[in-house]
Predict the structure.
Amino acid sequence: MSKHAPSHVFCSWPLYLIGVIILMCPFSIYAEGKTPQTSISYDLWIKGGTIVDGLGKKPFKGDILIRNDTIEFLGTPPRNSAIKASHVIDAKDKMVTPGFIDIHTHFDGPSSENPEDIALANFLSMGVTTINIGQCGDSPAGTDDLRAWLEQIERQKPGVNLLTFVGHNTIREKTGVGLRKTPSTSELEAMKNLLRKGLDAGAFGLSFGLEYEPGKFSEKEEWLALAKVVGRKGSVMSHLRNEDDDRLESSMKEFLTLTQVTNAHISHLKSVYGKGEKRGQEILAILNNARKQGFRVTADTYPYTASATTINILFPDWVNSANVDEMKKSRREELLTYIRTKVTKRNGPAATLFTEIKKFPNFVGKTLDDLAKDLKRPFEEVIVDEIGFSGASAVYFVMDEELQDVIARDPNVAIGSDGSPRSKHPRAFGTFAKFIRHFVVEKNYLTLEEAVRKVTGLPSTILGLKDRGLLKERYKADILIFAPKNAKDRATYLSPQELATGFDYVILNGKIALRDGKIESRYGTVIKSDL
Ligand SMILES: [Zn+2]
């Protein structure tokens, strides 16, 4: 028997009963107690590491034997057993964990200018072996033919595994609902059909981007009708309507009404300008209360205190891409006051750092405050008259570390980088290394096994993955070998695209994808749901 089997519970039982039990459940005995086969040769033998299984169990010493893409043996082989393996990795003094699952990312496929994006090196280098794309309301590459898109990505051999959601904003656009508040009956049917088509192609659920166009115009009745199509086997994930501290609770509660019909997950849970541990606990209590009613409610977050998005996030609800010119004239004073107040609440113009700015490209890496001083104009006028509704992207230093750390430590909150290979925010290149460094190594907020569970077993359960996210026999061999103290995020706000370091091996589908920090080859695959 391997050390995981609860053999002690049988000790006081009569021997014949034990015999009956063994006869009755040959499967479980086989699963937990088998010894490595000596008649075959394994492809990879990870020898003598400390195994952190992804369930949160205490780490234990053991070996892992892999054949093809699968873990065939996990435990302590009997002494002197004649194991044959074509490749052996000595994992002594290292932790062996499941590959990390990044539950919230963005990827539209490689472009002709950047074909190397298919390597997804930013993810692989920080220990991520699976990414969840199609988030914040956007299907990958805005496609309404996910089957074809996924097939194409599969052929291009991605550098990590990927799975996707269907984007609500994408299906709203593709069915012609656009910026209108309520779809007609036939439009709603068309949206449901498009969603069904995406789920049939292997998507795991529906994602909302309720702070963006056109999703910001939609309402609960529409969401419920669509969430019913997803049902309880899948889930819905949402970028909430508003993350400002005074609007956060109502935004969360509005979205959580979908628990009536499906599993609800809040993406990049944060409070913009909220502060302190107590506030963090109040936010988590909303999720806990929903769980107490028996619903499956989860969230994810990233370990940074700046958000990153387009500049239109600073404009009021009543301004959109179609009416912005008209509003600039008819409600100018109101618009300027709104933006001045909003930016001031968001820690002022010095807390907005441009990552892209069409009209003033030399202000990338500088702040709104810098630009306003340079132009000698109030910052709200600079936004309205010089930058425009969709003229820039920025990172915004609007969060409080104490508050965000409380959220990140919650046992039902997973970690998502919200990153893409081209992202100009350090979270895309550093999230998982920083999570280990900050929460385990430096602050001791979490044990290693709990931190690992939050980035492996937990996201696997949230997504409904069947054979990834744990170190377990017959699971796919997505495995990391590393020493936690070596995990280093190197990306910063001014140099956001530095790859993370410290992972000795990243094994993907049974193959060595990264060794000593160097990427060897691309072994990712497309993971499909059976919704
Ligand atoms: Zn988002």
The pocket of zinc ion is lined by residues 136, 239, 267-268 (CB under 6 Å). The first strand starts at residue 41 and ends at 42.
